Amino acid sequence: MRVVRNILTAAAIFFIFFGLQYLIGWHARVFLSSLMADIPTVIYWVCFWFIALSYIVSRLLEMWIPGPFARGLKWIGSYWFAILLYSVMILPIADLTAWLLRDVFEVSAHHSVLAAGFAAVVIYLAILVRGSWNAWNPIIRPYHLDVSKQAGNLEQLRIAVASDIHLGTLVGRRHLRQLVDRVNELKPDIVLLPGDVIDDAIEPFKRNDYGSIISGFQSKFGTYAVLGNHEYIGGKIEEFVMLMADAGIPVLLDQSVKVADSFYVVGRKDKSADRFRGSKGEGRLSTEQLVADLDHSLPLILMDHQPSALNEAADSGIDISLSGHTHRGQMAPSHFITRRIFELDWGYMRKGMMHVIVSSGYGTWGPPIRIGSRSEIIDITVHFDKS
Fold it and tell me: How confident is the prediction along the chain (387 residues), in pLDDT tens digits per residue?
């Protein structure tokens, strides 16, 4: 029964995906035929499907013959995903506009199609331009938190947080260098990276020597990272951990570090660890297990990539919980979905004595487009009990 259900689900996804692609292609052909001389059918559809399937083709090529051609297709395909998503909303409006112009305002069919088509193109371009600007121009998001614990000789702690960098083909050296520069301008005491440092494949990290750039974070107490779901999807966990160690950044795998005898950084494996168990059958520990042997009189700062176990963290005595993963939906109205899935999909909340911050992330997955979401760096100033 389960196999039949999986087959039906896959068939439904296949039908929706290719059906929507065909509708986009049909609308584009009607518009182009009204704009210029008719394009030969075969040539048009070959070119259209080449663009529509470019992301899928690029991922297949990356596995066998990685190179500039595969990376170029990935760029095209990534932006096409944004077109695909927003076509669900734009095309029905364009059809309604063309119908109203033709049947209500008695505009000719030719001019109705042109007017609706040009309006749709303007909307697409506005989304791509504004979305790209939101993705490539990060903002600093400040938070001030009070933790009623003493932290050694520290009266306050400044933490820079960058989740979901997604280093790969699209998010590259320039965006990473901007991150390092912006973080260093904050003069943080510590830098924390709560998962999804890479975008699945580890090959771009090595080829582009991202380690030499990410090692440039400057802070008093160093930089720490945890794994996200995309590191697990990539499947090269041990190699990634070694590359980060070479860059001077420990990846905490269900581990904690006591920093300056003043506070703890607790790094939890991503939720995906339970799904992508290796040959050793290793999942992840609970937050309670992670902090059981720690001195709870000191502040406990947790990095857990997905904000899916907040009650557990609060009950375990965590003072600050830091997560990412959601991208705040990345492209509206997807944020309505993340808001339904997670108790907190972005921003700040107080849960008992625990401060919770979920970042929309620094990089992007898929299209480098953000609508209703911004690329962000979190700047946290923690004030401790002075008594």
Answer: 777 787 888 888 889 999 999 999 999 999 999 988 778 999 999 999 999 999 988 878 776 776 888 888 999 999 999 999 999 999 999 999 999 999 999 899 999 999 999 999 999 999 999 999 999 999 999 999 999 999 999 999 999 999 999 999 999 999 999 999 999 999 999 999 999 999 988 999 999 999 999 999 999 999 999 999 999 999 899 999 999 999 999 999 999 999 999 999 999 999 998 887 653 447 899 999 999 999 999 999 999 999 989 999 999 999 999 999 999 999 999 999 999 999 999 999 999 999 999 999 999 999 999 999 999 999 999 999 986
Does residue 345 share a domain with residue 228? yes
CATH of the domain at 165: 3.60.21.10
Cross-strand partners of 176: none
User: Are residues 360 and 250 located together in one domain of the fold?
Assistant: yes
Residues 242 and 121 reside in one and the same domain: no
Domain range for 247: 140-384
Largest Cα separation within the chain, whole Å, is 80
173 with 307, same domain? yes
Collapsing DSSP to helix, strand or coil, 371 comes out as strand
- Tell which of 134, 160, 183 closes a domain: 134
Question: pTM value?
Answer: 0.93
Query: Which of the 8 DSSP states describes residue 143?
Result: E
Looking at 81, 108, 134, the residue that finishes a domain is 134
Kindly state whether residues 120 and 163 are assigned to the same domain: no
| Helix ranges, 100-138 (H) | 109-136
Alpha-carbon distance of 313 to 352, in angstroms, equals 10
In whole angstroms, give the CA distance from residue 379 to residue 160.
5
